[in-house]
Write a structure and sequence with these properties.
The complex is a heterodimer. Chain A is mainly beta. Chain A contains no helices and eleven strands. In chain B, the strands form two sheets. In chain B, strands 2, 4, 5, 9, 10 and 11 form a six-stranded mixed sheet that branches. A five-stranded antiparallel sheet of chain B has the order 1-3-8-7-6, with no helix packed on it. The chains are: A mainly beta, B mainly beta.
């Protein structure tokens, strides 16, 4: 099993450009998440999904959109990138809460720089 | 919403010494407290977690303690080794909150000197 796979690993954008980050998991997890990691601020939740076809806003959703068309994939989109979105982005997945398994499985991250 | 404060932000210890990282949380409804370890260039990995119905949990050299009254919890690493060097994150979450909405602390960079 590959676990959680993120693509791309690195990307440099110019202000105003758009891009999509792809997350794929092969563990049949119900829940998927997108976090951003900034120095000294820990991990902050951008958007999450509790199942195929559903998405919800997290703590810092502005400037991002997401889609969960297939259970195994969770896409994060930046429509018009801004320098404030320079960060490391992590995707994670977990079993549903009903199974009382809270463990998050993280991907290896995407380093995004917006110039 | 929940607010999690983590201290210290950096910690340097000699190999073999103990390391302690402390976190405080604000929401009394939080009842799940995991700790994640992030090695350089990798995503965080769960190393230990505790629920509010217990005060302490151990796993080999790692232990976590929880004080619900004071709303703080701590990670204890004994007999530190160079491979313990990493960034550690605490987090808190209330049960029943859809989407396992963990709130993370700011992280602690632990450096174990040989």
């Amino acid at each position: 099993n590959a676990g959680v796979t993120q693509t791309p690993k690195f990307r440099v954008l110019k202000t105003g450009q758009s891009m999509t980050l792809l997350c794929a998991q092969d563990m049949n997890h119900e829940y998927m998440y997108w976090y951003r990691q900034d120095p000294g601020m820990g991990l902050r939740l951008i958007h999450y999904s509790v199942g195929e076809g559903t998405t919800a806003k997290g703590e810092v959703p502005d400037g991002y959109n997401v889609s969960r068309l297939k259970k195994q994939n969770f896409l994060l989109g930046l429509e018009s990138a801004a320098p404030s979105q320079t960060s490391v982005y992590f995707c994670a997945s977990s079993y549903s809460r009903d199974r009382r398994n809270e463990k998050l499985f993280f991907g290896s991250g995407t380093q995004l720089s917006v110039l | 919403g929940e607010n999690v404060e983590q201290h210290p932000s950096t910690l340097s210890v000699q190999e073999g010494d103990s390391a302690v990282i402390k976190c405080t949380y604000s929401d009394s409804a939080s009842n799940y407290f995991p700790w994640y370890k992030q090695e350089l260039g990798k995503g965080p990995q769960l190393i230990i977690d505790i629920r509010s119905n217990v005060g302490e949990k151990k796993d080999q050299r790692i232990a976590v303690t929880l004080n619900k009254t004071a709303k703080h919890f701590s990670l204890h690493i004994t007999e530190t080794q160079p491979e313990d060097s990493a960034v550690y994150f605490c987090a808190a979450s209330p049960w029943g909150n859809a989407g396992n909405m963990l709130t993370f602390g700011g992280g602690t960079r632990l450096m174990v000197k040989p």
